[in-house]
């Protein structure tokens, strides 16, 4: 069994990517000849030194591509792989422990189409102290997920080149929903490292600014399910996004008038999604809608939303009267 670790690189220097490569070299109980790393440079002038890359005990392939964004770069890495299994890693992350790949190879021998593992998020407290958070059963991030390459090819599971923000969920959900042979690993072996330069961690208005991109990702995912004739999945994820947007609009930062420009822009984009997905939303049984509502309500209350300022029906009426009349 062979595994390729696929890494997009843009402005990340050798100093930034070194912890990832070092953490691979430190892996125990695995044959380094069964591991490959494919790094694809996304049209950047920050190039990695070949002598540096070839100093590791596993094969590193470095590909210089034209600038097309992170999704196209990950797809280029996938297209370049010949391994049995593939794992996508970010250049500024690393493996969490020295037995991480032994866990992956153990599961590879048993066989799966996709493996979803717990991973660890490194964060910072207000006092600048580092803290570590376990992330379980996540579909939002590419971290800690491994796929059988032939399965991805046979099912035409691909990265959507039009998505460059919140693009992970499109690929992750598609990979998990097109197979019944998806495994969960409760042992964390991937570390999503903190990086001071990371916009999505440091900009407290990141979600306000990029929620439209999340709606774009969901729109692409639902369209993909419809194209594949997977109508239950299309109904489910269309409904999930509609309810998610409703709860999001009830959070204090969205209600605050200082963020009105973001709310207005997001509601306008949501109106397009709602109009396109309304028939799918209406077709989902009421029991399934209730389960989605309860799950999201629990999640958002856990994130600090204390009250729903308006009911779902009131908000949808506002959307229809403001943007769809």
The backbone outline, from C-alpha atoms, is globular
Name given to the CATH homologous superfamily of the largest domain: Spore Coat Polysaccharide Biosynthesis Protein SpsA, Chain A
User: What is the correct CATH architecture of the largest domain?
Assistant: Alpha-Beta Complex
Summed up, the helix count is: 13
Mean pLDDT: 93
| Uncertain regions spanning at least 5 consecutive residues | none
Strand arrangement, largest sheet? Answer: 3-2-1-4-9-6-10
SSE order, one letter for each helix or strand: EHEHEHEEHEEEEHHEEHHHHHHH
CATH topology of the largest domain: Spore Coat Polysaccharide Biosynthesis Protein SpsA, Chain A
Biggest sheet record: 7 strands, mixed
Q: What class would the helix/strand composition place it in?
A: alpha/beta
Radius of gyration: 21 Å
What is the count of distinct domains? 2
Our measurement of the CA-to-CA distance between the termini, rounded to an integer number of angstroms, reads 58 Å
List the helices and strands and how they pair.
Layout: E1 3-9, H1 14-25, E2 35-42, H2 50-53, E3 59-65, H3 70-79, E4 85-88, E5 94-95, H4 100-110, E6 114-117, E7 119-124, E8 130-135, E9 145-148, H5 149-154, H6 168-177, E10 182-185, E11 190-192, H7 199-202, H8 206-227, H9 231-249, H10 252-255, H11 260-283, H12 286-302, H13 312-323
Parallel strand pairs: 1-2, 1-4, 2-3, 6-10, 7-11
Antiparallel strand pairs: 4-9, 5-11, 6-9, 7-8
Helix pairs in contact: 6-8, 8-9, 8-11, 9-11, 9-12
